[in-house]
Amino acid sequence: MNALVRSSAVLSNGPFMLNLDCDHYIFNCKAVREGMCFMMDRAGEDICYIQFPQRFEGIDPSDRYANHNTVFFDGNMRALDGLQGPVYVGTGCMFRRFALYGFEPPKADKISEKGSETEALKTTDFDPDLDVNLLPKRFGNSTVLAESIPIAEYHARPIADHPAVKYGRPPGILRAPREPLDATTVAEAVSVISCWYEDKTEWGDRVGWIYGSVTEDVVTGYRMHNRGWRSVYCVTKRDAFRGSAPINLTDRLHQVLRWATGSVEIFFSRNNALLGSTKIKVLQRLAYLNVGIYPFTSLFLIVYCFLPALSLFSGQFIVQTLDVAFLALLLTISLCLVGLALLEVKWSGVGLEEWWRNEQFWLISGTSAHLAAVVQGLLKVIAGIEISFTLTSKSAGDDVDDIYADLYLVKWTSLMIPPIVIGMINIIAIVVAFSRTIYEQVPQWSKFIGGAFFSFWVLAHLYPFAKGLMGRRGKTPTIVFVWSGLIAITLSLLYVAINPTSNQDSNLTSGFTFP
């Protein structure tokens, strides 16, 4: 991407750039114009990029693995638009070239007081610490590239057609004819994309797309916000761009694993929002902090998924005593969470089914990909072990007559083991607790129902995972049955070892208890 930025600066030097993934295409020909309205607005000189929502094609009608991710794109991103702006998600984004070069937004002390417009600034005016002699260190040895920087900044200013515009450019200046490209210019463009050009420069560190992270898109957007720029979320009536997404369970988990690993890297790097400058707003800082922290919630989520099963195995509830105060507190918290979810759904326009799919996949990914990301991220940070990732597979299955054939294809991965263990433990716990309740002298069905409710709630979240694991009849890999059988046998033997029968009259009531 940085090579394209440099070559385009030499050839055309457009003040704005559009970034799309290779699997995305323009669905709305007027989307770029709508984004330009924000960039060229009288108060838009400090906008670094315009982020459009991602929309996908080829997703199964039920959206089993929450590929549309409407809760994020229609909820979270719209909420960030009210702060300093949405995060950069790697595609469907229109950039201001000058902001991507690593400069700060225009300041008030650079605004002329004599007229409604200002002249083009010199490169050294953008950064007081940047001397002309230091340009090669930051941008490379190309003089053509260095000379294009102030021109790109000047052309990106709003039109000075109103007295309120104090940092603008005269109308019609962009209509001036450009000189045709010659052999020298083309040779310069080839030179700036060479492999050696970035050596001993700040490309990838302070200039352009940032290197050193799996999720370089988030880091690049964070650096801009950290300098004081703001971004805008542009939701068009007709989808601006459309692309494809993995509908296979394994491919989807690997995609989430890559994102989560990048978030862990961000948390342990200098790009942690806690280390940001004072130019980033407090709530925006919290949003970026959440980007780096969310994979670590998998540790608590794993515990919460096992607690209902442990409760059923031990015959005791999750807490020591059940009194009116505890039940009232639990009911209050539950009602607040449900009310908050309903308000978010109503405000963002997300359907209840889409919200529920998002909740299901949050638990599936949290107990598999997010947990693995924490382990891999810690290995990279502490032990220096690099993890290589492949591009997310988004190809269809072998059945050309079925566009959703890839949805039913089962590809084994070790990421499936934790959800399988959670599901098997909760199923076995329900069976054991049900059998114990039946053979009790005084069956306590209310106690069983109260404990089993939470296990069924966990299993309800794992339902899409179970469907993806089974695939089509007769096409489930043998390794899935082998692992499921081994896990079931291991858990059964573990339960027998922990909770042995003391005598024939114990009626399955003995066992370990919580302190």
Automatic annotation (TrEMBL):
<dbReference type="GO" id="GO:0016020">
    <property type="term" value="C:membrane"/>
</dbReference>
<feature type="transmembrane region" description="Helical">
    <location>
        <begin position="420"/>
        <end position="439"/>
    </location>
</feature>
<keyword id="KW-1133">Transmembrane helix</keyword>
<dbReference type="GO" id="GO:0030244">
    <property type="term" value="P:cellulose biosynthetic process"/>
</dbReference>
<dbReference type="GO" id="GO:0071555">
    <property type="term" value="P:cell wall organization"/>
</dbReference>
<feature type="transmembrane region" description="Helical">
    <location>
        <begin position="293"/>
        <end position="312"/>
    </location>
</feature>
<keyword id="KW-0808">Transferase</keyword>
<dbReference type="InterPro" id="IPR005150">
    <property type="entry name" value="Cellulose_synth"/>
</dbReference>
<feature type="transmembrane region" description="Helical">
    <location>
        <begin position="445"/>
        <end position="466"/>
    </location>
</feature>
<dbReference type="Pfam" id="PF03552">
    <property type="entry name" value="Cellulose_synt"/>
</dbReference>
<keyword id="KW-0328">Glycosyltransferase</keyword>
<protein>
    <submittedName>
        <fullName>Cellulose synthase-like protein D4</fullName>
    </submittedName>
</protein>
<keyword id="KW-0812">Transmembrane</keyword>
<feature type="transmembrane region" description="Helical">
    <location>
        <begin position="478"/>
        <end position="498"/>
    </location>
</feature>
<dbReference type="GO" id="GO:0016760">
    <property type="term" value="F:cellulose synthase (UDP-forming) activity"/>
</dbReference>
<dbReference type="GO" id="GO:0012505">
    <property type="term" value="C:endomembrane system"/>
</dbReference>
<keyword id="KW-0961">Cell wall biogenesis/degradation</keyword>
<keyword id="KW-0472">Membrane</keyword>
<dbReference type="InterPro" id="IPR029044">
    <property type="entry name" value="Nucleotide-diphossugar_trans"/>
</dbReference>
<feature type="transmembrane region" description="Helical">
    <location>
        <begin position="324"/>
        <end position="343"/>
    </location>
</feature>
